[in-house]
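Changelog note: in this version the structure field was regenerated for every chain. One regenerated record is shown below for reference.
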Amino acid sequence: MLALPSIKLLDDVYVVAGPSLTHLYDAYAYLIVRNGTALLIDAGSGLAAEEMFRNIEDIGVKLQTVKYLVITHGHYDHIGGARRAKDKTNCKVIMHKFDADILEEGKTVLSAADFYGESLEPCEVDLKLETKDREVLRLEDIVLEVFHIPGHTPGSIALYYESLQRQNVLFGGDLHGPFSSKWRSNIEQWKKSLKRLLELDISILCEGHNIVEESPHKWIKELFKNIIQV
């Protein structure tokens, strides 16, 4: 498919990959750029990794300044490009320890790679988060509040970030689900996770498959009415 340019959400937040930008199998991947350091949130499927790299460069960011890749959870459309991103930028890969085995061992079923008819290329995880509730992650000048939000997968996390424009951005991964026993999903845990996130002041929700700039709390509440199981 023809790749489209990145989307600028805020002065320091961009969308650099996604189904309408790079490849149909890519979840949205986001880039935070602050004081010369860039941080990638999720890496797509890897099937259009070069297009994602081109989008990063086209906004004036050198690939060697992408020092971190933080992964929201261990599904193929978010982690399939991790190996390519690490090889290209030498970034440190960060994800929750409860999903890290999926990426490090290239697990086809747990990653849902089989759902796409693909395989997952293994990649080492440099930092395995042990977040039980919430913690602050300081990566040079980029500060993220990490929330452990099990449900979709055991190691799902959300990242809460205050932008340069004082906008509170929530990078939520796949808050919408879906859920499957094959992925170790737990709907009751998911409900508790969403309720915790609803306590936050959210200006923009950057979800894995949706960008919600108006009424993000309302959007999250609607998820309780449409639980998707596969």
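Spot check on this record: The chain has six helices and 13 strands. The longest strand covers residues 142-148.
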